[in-house]
Amino acid sequence: MNNNTSSKDFSLYNKVVDLDNYINRYIANNISSVRRDIRIHLLDEIYNLSKNIFYALYNKGNIRMKYLIELQVNISLIDMFLLKLRNLNTVKKSYIDVSISKLSDIKNIIYGWKFNEEKK
User: Cα separation of 103 and 42, whole Å?
Assistant: First the structure.
């Protein structure tokens, strides 16, 4: 990480890794093959979430804001897929609820980061 990174950035990265591991272990493997499209899109969005964190970290100014907005889009899509799975009753609701809670922590950090960038 570069000199401008802080413990917030490591915390965000660790939370995304934790969410990724949890979803791979408890959700992705329990999605039926009939709903494989949801599994593919969900995992793609988590990958994009991880990727966009690094893009936001290593850029400044308007480019960083672009990636912070992309992170918000990633979070919204992940949330949408999790709610869709919850409504389909293909995965235990408790697993979905834990994932949504983990995603909410990530969302709060990203929204705070974006707010601080807008103030600059």
Answer: 13
Tell me how far CA of residue 87 lies from CA of 34, 47, 82, in angstroms: 15, 23, 9
Residue type at position 40? I
| Alpha-carbon 14 to chain mean position | 11
For the question of whether the overall pTM of this predicted structure is more than 0.85, the answer is: yes
7 vs 75, higher pLDDT = 75
| Token pair in block for residue 42 | 């969900």
Nearest to 20 by CA among 102, 93, 82: 102
Sign of the Cα torsion 100, 106, 112, 118 reads negative
Q: How far from 42 is each of 6, 108, 118, CA to CA, in Å?
A: 28, 20, 29
Can you read off the two tokens belonging to residue 12? Answer: 């965000």
Residue 57 tokens, joined: 């970290």
Integer Cα distance of 95 and 25 in angstroms: 10
Token representation of residue 81:
């897929």
Tell me how far apart the alpha carbons of residues 43 and 40 are, in angstroms, rounded to a whole number: 5
